[in-house]
Here is the input.
Amino acid sequence: MPHRFTGERTLMRIFIGERDKCEHGPYQGLALHEALLRLFRERGFAGVTVLRGTKGFGASAKVHTADLLRLSMDLPEVIEVVETEEKIQQVLPELDRMIDGGLITLEKVRVILYRPANVPENERWRHRIEGLEPTDREGPQ
Here is the structure.
């Protein structure tokens, strides 16, 4: 069973503030990063990472910071998702309803996926490697 796969995916980054709430839908009122995490998990996305920034500013140009003298309660957050273009396009209309203020960027990325050696063949792993090329080689690397 191949262990390493390479290919192309889409990287979606969602820039929000930690105090942002989900505006509409089944997660209305939840912290936006939590609502997005739940949505992507329900939709079977391969993975999501929520990153909390220490400083930043957005459209208002107001600096949000974790500095002790100017402690902010609304630090920047970035949600990163690497998935197929098709799955990301399918979820964008839902994001339009959930996000009141923020920024989404999309870019094509080259991925290298390392699958654990003893993972069983199942639907979850088939989706993750679909369209990627196995790159395992015989002998020493």
In short: The chain is about 25% helix and 30% strand. The radius of gyration is 18 Å. The domain at 13-105 is CATH 3.30.70.120 (Alpha-Beta Plaits).
